[in-house]
Design goal:
By secondary structure, the chain is mostly helical. 61% of the residues lie in helices and 0% in strands. The protein is globular and about 45 Å long.
Length: 174
């Protein structure tokens, strides 16, 4: 019996071992990958969590749990998500290690925007923005975009200055 080979000193059944460790274990990497791919496709399709959730008949909180791999996505729900986003179900498995159909398939890049949206801070930001009236939300988004552009310009200028100017004594490390 395989159970006895893995846990020879244990008298517990496979179910008891799984039940004990199931709640303590992290999500399976495949569940994390599928959840991340749902979020990537959704963002690429310019669909909000609320819109996708509504179109497949679940709450946006449930969709968040799918995207963060806190809940596993059933095959039927994955089918509905694919239909709603107009992609084949196989799209959610692309780049999953061991799921390559050819040697030429490269893993999909991890979009750091998705990681931020999935984080607690990202969710708090989105929840706060969703409480604003749509017009104010648009203006806040404009301010954030302008700040990002301004900071990106400063970074470029700082890099150029760093090449041309010596580092001040108080910033030198030894």
């Amino acid at each position: 019996m395989q159970h006895q080979k893995i846990f020879p000193e244990s008298k517990r059944t496979r179910f008891e071992v799984w039940e004990r460790t199931g709640a303590e274990c992290a999500p399976h990497p495949a569940d994390q990958h599928v959840g991340r791919q749902i979020a990537v496709v959704r963002v690429q399709s310019d669909v909000s969590q609320a819109q996708l959730a509504r179109s497949i008949g679940i709450s946006f909180q449930q969709l968040q749990k799918y995207e963060n791999a806190r809940n596993r996505v059933s095959a039927s729900m994955l089918y509905e998500i694919g239909r709603s986003l107009d992609v084949p179900v196989s799209r959610f498995f692309e780049g999953l290690p061991g799921n390559e159909t050819s040697r030429e398939a490269a893993p999909l890049p991890v979009d750091e925007r998705i990681d931020f949206i999935a984080s607690a801070g990202g969710r708090r930001l989105i929840e706060g923005l969703m409480q604003l009236p749509p017009r104010v939300r648009g203006r806040v988004a404009g301010v954030i975009a302008a700040l990002g552009e301004e900071l990106a310009g400063l970074d470029v200028n700082m890099d150029t200055k760093a090449i041309d100017e010596p580092m001040p004594d108080d910033r030198k490390t030894e």
